[in-house]
Amino acid sequence: LRWLSAGESHGPELVATVEGIPAGMPLLAEDIDEDLARRQRGYGRGGRMKIETDRVRLVAGVRGGETLGGPIAMVIENRDHASWAGRMGPEPFPEPPEALTRPRPGHADLAGGLKYARRDLRDVLERASARETAARVAVGGVCRKLLRSVGVEVFAHVLSIGPVASPTSAASGGGELPLTELRERARASDLACVDAVAAQAMRDAIREAAHRGDTLGGVFEVIATGLPPGLGSHVQWDRKLDGRLAQALMSIQAIKGVEIGIGFEAARISGSEVHDPIAYDQGAHAFTRPSNRAGGLEGGITNGMPLICRAAMKPIATLKRALPSVDVRTKEQFDAAFERSDVCAVAAASVVGEAMVAITLAAALLEKFGGDSLTELSRNVDSYLQQVRSY
Ligand code: EPS
Question: Where does this protein hold FMN (predicted)?
């Protein structure tokens, strides 16, 4: 599986291409639009979300509602582009647009400006912007469809926003909520938070941060159910699925940490409290675990339990109450530039996290089972599952 995104935040459109999806998979734009709409939600989003209504246009690789096995190409329009005429198009500008020269601490502005030798920092921030994650979610939507065809579901929920935490984490027992319930509650919440009391406290914290001209980060958890044991491998560093998931999640704008299962907590308690005992269910011909602190991965391989990973998002770098910065042209000290921004985008990031996990799992699934058509892939999966049952 290969994929790429292209596009600037206020450019005409975002583009994504994904290659390696087998032929014969039903795929409609509306399957993807549902994820795109969820990514736009969330208490604490800024004015831009009122302008955009993200919808995907499938422009290659799909015919009559089914994939053809060739590259799938998708386009998402940036509606806000209309108000950037003369400043963001590919043609030379009649008048040079005003350059953005005050880098925001915590954003890619300064590091990117130095690296690409751009004097107008807009040339950097337009691509660094988290607007690009709409394209990732489109690719994730295609991969989710593939995973669903073999019984795998991926969903996410928000564990904390700033100092406010939800009591429910799947890795530490799920707060006794079944995963299906966790998924439904997350979907019904504007903050993707399964606990109504925590969600209210989160909204209050976001509102207060907005009053102060400040922003908030948080932690979300991504869960995948229905995975066969055996995705990923222990035999080489770059085939370990935990490492690949960490890279995928860490690559999301503003993500600063990733955990698998109980993650950092495992370093604070002893081995007997960390590792999940192994049992065998004679009826189901399956190995079972009474707990899932490993988050469904051992040796970089799925072990048949639900996959659980978490990501920590830093607060958004665009602050109304700007931090000190230096104008790159004059070298004078200024407060950084303020662009319209979100106060908190953790719920949106959790949908992007789902997409990145879905893409990584779809890649691992295709590596293990191959198949140029969905029929071939399904046959290969079924035959392997039979082998596992008779192990
Ligand atoms: C972003 C800044 C804001 C966000 C944007 C990410 O955009 P603007 O500068 O146009 O107000 O709204 O997120 C999206 C547009 C999106 O679709 O998620 C940034 O600087 O990263």
Answer: 127-129, 253-254, 299, 314-318, 340
